[in-house]
Amino acid sequence: MAMAKKTKAKKKAKSKASIDPQVIAQRRQKYAVRSLFKRLGLQRIKSDGVEFKFKERTGELDDIFIYENVVILGEYTVGKKGTEHIAKKSLLYGIINNNQSEWMEFAAAKFSGFGELKYLPSEYQVKICYFSVNALSDEVYAALDYVFFLNGTKFRYFDALAKTIHKSARLEFFKYLRLDFKKIGSEIKSSSNNSRSFGGFVLPESFSSFPAGFKVVSFYADPKALLTMSYVLRKDSWRDEDGLYQRVLMKGRMKEMRRYLTTEERVFVNNIIVTLPKETRLNEPGEEGKNIDTKSLSVVRDVTVFVPFKADVIGIVDGQHRVFCYHEGDDQYEGKIEKLRDRQNLLVTGVIYPSAYADADKRRFEAKLFLEINDKQRRARSDLKHSIEMILSPYSTIAIAKAVVARMNSNGALRQMLQTNYFDPPRLIRTSSIVSYGLRPLLKLEGVDSLFSSWNDPDKLKLVELQKGKVGQATIDPILEKYTAYCYAALNDILLAARKKLGSHKWALEDRAKDRFLTPTLINGLIVCLRLVIQNGKPLSETTYGERFAVLDQVGITKYRSSSWKALGEAIYKKCFQ
Questions:
Q1: Core-most of 12, 319, 417, 481, by most CB within 10 Å?
Q2: What's the pLDDT band for 379 if we cut at 50, 70, 90?
Q3: Distance CA 317, CA 348 (A)
Q4: Percentages helix, strand, coil for the chain, rounded to the nearest 5?
């Protein structure tokens, strides 16, 4: 008889203490922020856990970062009660902001990481950055306008930019912080010329075919100057939405171009297209101060181009990748590219606006020029075309729909639930189908099923004429804002009623899209229902919708998937309004 095998007593596994998910989120956030500043080339000074008392106010700081004479105080939160959190910190922030010189003297003595200050306390610029996963209220942003709030979307933009162009992203981040370029680092002690000069050529105005007063110049510029002085109106960046149209920088393409610069050892021969500020001077070569009268020119002639040496003055319309591939990086190509940054080897064609040209006109001109260049070389993506359309054709139905989506994401039933930016969290609801298939039919300026037909404004027909281009307008007519506001309010009424009936547990963004009740299909279905309500002359009010939606949960919403929003909308209307 075989002996039974002895079985080893199983050791009772030690149960690991579960870690609070919020603690994990806090650790991830701190690591991400510190990694960002490291890529930007800032030094971290440890401050977490150090309690101090400054001007009778006690507090702590999560982190301090420093670059030359720029000091950034970082505060982190991952909770949903960010407004309460910032309220507790605001008094300390206000005292520091209003007493920056004294704060620097205090901080240098309190935090050992500062060492001996390289600059006078009065020469330091102190900025406060508040990093939050969730957006805060508009009231907080308005009340603390000296605090820079980097919610998830803005942070992801700068994080992606820093991963793409590394330390050169610091220039744009400092622009976001509203820092004066002439007061950063060695520039504060410099008495150098306030302009950069480039030898080049100017085209007679009659040769360019641009409107009267425009000047076109060509010159060679060094990448370092362009990196320092230029801006790009990237659609999904930190800047205000109006007038933004360009793509974000692509990391893969940047790497390929840096490899080309170092392996082929040659420059890009095609032009960088830029706009130059009206303060740009065209002087006789070798005779600074003697301006050339371009109106009298009949042939191309040589000039010295003087551009104000400061940030955000050269607008890159085409060629941002060719400029930014010279960025200050930490890859295997940096050794060679560092030697190329100061060489005047990039061919630039610059357009100088007439002195009286308005900012809105500049944006329209740049967007149109960008589209002309890029649409002939390769098809511009549809979302970029939509953004350009908002600039060039603000009265188009697509432009109105995009404006309504922006309002829906700022207020109301879908506040902070929609993807309106490339760097928005992927868990938010995508809006491309909502704009194209939901809102465009609802907002069109014709038909008995559009909100335009139910709008009672006495001047509404002016909007039709503006959309057709039959009325010349130098500025946006107020009638557009009135229609956009009306459309948002009318749409929000039916969405609020649906949210109230379905309940907050269904009107929520589950982490996994497949677990969600609230989907683009449901939103578009409610929009289709609203069109049927308008077409059949039913009352438009949140109260009416609330009464009718008493049986909304009997529709069987979850069985409608993907692009079946038309069938869902018809089912909601039939069940609730007939």
A1: 319
A2: very low
A3: 11
A4: 50, 15, 35
Which stretch of DSSP H or E encloses residue 228? helix 223-229
The Cα 202–Cα 205 span in angstroms is: 9
The Cα 132–Cα 140 span in angstroms is 13
Cβ-Cβ contacts under 8 Å for 183 (sequence gap 6 or more): 69, 123, 125
Mean pLDDT value across the chain:
82
Quick one: tokens of 495? Answer: 């969405």
Q: Is the dihedral of CA 275, 281, 282, 285 positive or negative?
A: negative
pLDDT more than 70, % of the chain: 83
Closest CA relative to residue 164, chosen from 103, 288, 255: 255
Neighbours of 302 (CB within 10 A): 12
Q: Among 490, 493, 467, 468, which residue's Cα sits nearest to residue 479?
A: 467
Cα distance between residue 60 and residue 107, in whole Å: 12
Tokens encoding 163: 């991963």
Question: Which phi and psi (to 5°) does residue 336 adopt?
Answer: -80, -40
Tokens representing 291?
A: 């301006």
Listed in order, the ranges of the chain carrying CATH 3.40.1350 are 21-185
Give dist(CA 402, CA 382) in Å, integer: 13
The three-state secondary structure class of 88 is: helix
Would you put residue 443 in left (φ > 0), alpha (ψ -120 to 50) or beta? alpha
Q: Which helix (H) or strand (E) holds 178?
A: none
- The answer to whether the beta carbons of residues 459 and 451 sit under 8 Å apart is no
**Measured distance CA(512)–CA(528) in Å, rounded:** 26
Q: What residue type is 169 in one-letter code?
A: A
Coil vs helix vs strand at 472: coil
- The DSSP bridge partners found for residue 63 are 74
Amino acid at 148: F
- CATH code, 21-185: 3.40.1350
Place of tokens 């505060």: 75
Alpha helices, H only, 310-358: 320-324, 334-340
> Rounded distance, CA 256 to CA 331, Å?
12
Calpha distance 430→436 (Å, rounded): 12
pLDDT digits 0-9 by tens, 104-134: 999 999 998 888 888 999 999 999 999 887 7
Short-list 141, 142, 117, CA closest to 130? 141
The half-sphere exposure of 494 on its side-chain side, counting CA atoms within 13 A, is 28
Instruction: Please give the full DSSP string across 73-87, using - where no structure is assigned.
Output: EEEEE-SS-HHHHHH
